[in-house]
Amino acid sequence: MSRLRVALGEQLKDCSQVVTLGVRSQIGDYTEKELELLRAADTIFYPTARFVDLFATLGKLTFPSVNCYRLQGERLKQVALLRMLNVPYPRTRVYYGCRQKQKIPEDFTFPLIAKKALGSAAGRDVYFIRDSNKLEWYKNKFNPAYIQEHVLAEVELRVVVINYEKVFGSYRRIAGGDPRGDLDHVGAWQTKDMPGEAIDLGKHIARQGGLSEVTVEMIFNGSQFLVVELNFDHDGLGALDWRQERLKAVMEMIEQGECRSGETGRRAGLKIQWALCPWEFDSPLRHHVLARG
Fold first, then answer.
1. Where are the beta strands (DSSP E) in 67-212?
2. CA–CA separation, 160 vs 232, rounded Å?
């Protein structure tokens, strides 16, 4: 029996196995025939943030999963998820209001990283704070204040995970330890010899978080991987244009009937091992990094 797949976003408009309806201002703008398609659909692709919670309430399977939309641009929720998964990330604190913000210099040393906590993604609204003057500007502009320690990174990595299994990865070496610094001191993005540990960590976060389409941004500081952010605005990332590869992977997933429900953790029979077994960085990239020391 054939499965009915419907999309709202136009990413899959060229896929013959998906009926694309387009995005409307409100659910009442769809015709009764279109609503019947949505009611009968096995999977609704690219439902958009506007409608994904409606479909989740109805028990509809969506791609990307509802958790992707719930975490999009929500750095506070993302860091909470990383904490619950016991995934290493730079030390982070959030400060609300003037009184709490006064404690930032007591908790962190310069330089530090400050970000817009809500409504921002894909590396936007990230600030390298070198001194108290820049910190004062940031505190006056943003509330809450989202502060991370500055970690000297040797490598910056991006792991794109599709349907919990298909992975695209890239990395670049960094001179001076700051990926936000002078581009002349940042290497070109590469895909060859992508560290297997980074790929496994990206899959782990996707599976345990129920994130069917996610870009996991990491750094390697010479001893371990640290996750700095989860991104869902994939087209906004400037590393490599994975658009065609991503859509190809999604279409292959559709053709093979492998769209997964987003069950996570023990319900999906997955083993949580990151908190129990600290991983080592054992890959060809390790030798490049150590050679710089």
1. 92-95, 112-116, 126-129, 145-149, 155-162, 166-173
2. 9
- H/E stretch holding 13 reads none
**pLDDT class of 259 with cuts at 50, 70, 90:** confident
120 and 142 Cβ atoms separated by less than 8 Å: no
Cβ–Cβ under 8 Å, residues 117 and 142 = yes
Cβ atoms of residues 92 and 79 within 8 Å: yes
- The residue-averaged pLDDT of 53-57 equals 96
145 three-class SS: strand
Tens of pLDDT, residues 151-188: 999 999 999 999 999 998 889 998 755 555 444 456 78
> Where does the pLDDT of residue 248 fall: very low under 50, low under 70, confident under 90, or very high at 90 and above?
confident
At 249 the pLDDT is 85
DSSP 8-state code for residue 180: T
- DSSP codes of every residue in 103-134: THHHH--SSEEEEE-BS--TT-SEEEE-SHHH
Query: What is the pTM (predicted TM-score) of this model?
Result: 0.82
Q: Residue with structure tokens 């792991």?
A: 159
* DSSP strand pairing (43-45 vs 5-7): parallel
